[in-house]
Amino acid sequence: MLRARILTAAIVLCLFLAALFYLSAVFWMVLLLALIAAGAWEWGRLARFSLSYSIFYLLFTIFLAGELLFVLGDAVLANPYTTALEPLYFASVAFWMLYVPLFLKTKHRVGNPLALALMGWLVLLPTGLALYQLRAIEPFLLLGFMCAIWISDTAAYFSGRAWGRSKLAPSISPGKTWEGVAGAFAAVLVYALIWSNSSSSEARPSLLVPLLLLLAAMGIVGDLFESLMKRQAGIKDSGNILPGHGGILDRIDALTSTLPLAILSLLISQSEL
Q: d(Cα 145, Cα 123) in Å, to the nearest integer?
């Protein structure tokens, strides 16, 4: 299992880096649309949709995502810092910062199919749009934000295994500990200081340290959110498309709660210049 996880991670990373730096904007859009489609299908499983409803949800999500990506694609040609879809980023950040912590605390079950559909769109659509716009601004900037989340996840895992004693959310994700959270913050702080002191990217150095620490926190929230959704659905993984890793949502759970915040923070900071 470990060998499969490592091999899959290496292959996916190489393919992602090749796509990030070498795909044209059109093919990058197609890739993101495929990612959103796969996530929508898995969301139907997490939300316990019927087969017919899952198919309808998948098709309608592809339509929505395609329209939004088309609008954003045109807008970034004129200005990569376009605020055309800023309201959707605001909606995503409000969802993750206001609703999801309450959801994690109460662990209530959402039974309304329309509410579940809206939740899925707030998880998937802003993430795909953020991936497109951040790449349009600067591919290395997108990679830098994603690396912060990967560093946070890795540090949390190893810190938790080495020193973990105090459970973070035992009824949601028994393996996560407060010691792992501390390790994640420490690692991201070091990364943020290095980036802020050596960066010539579009991100303002004064913004990087607090933003990356906030992204680390929100990445944990995203991870817990998907874990709770899986527990309520009675499944271990959101899918099985990635050997040893599960589904697409299992791999991008922390990105869904962080990348919309990253692009929104960047757009706000640029508007203040």
A: 18
Q: How far is CA 261 from CA 21, 23, 51, 140, 162, in A?
A: 23, 25, 33, 17, 31
Domain count, the chain: 1
Q: Kindly report, residue by residue over 130-186, the tens digit of the pLDDT.
A: 999 999 999 999 999 999 999 999 999 999 999 989 999 999 999 999 999 999 999
Which domain range does residue 254 map to?
Answer: 2-271
Q: How many CB atoms lie within 10 A of CB 235?
A: 16
pTM of structure: 0.93
Q: How many residues does the chain have?
A: 273
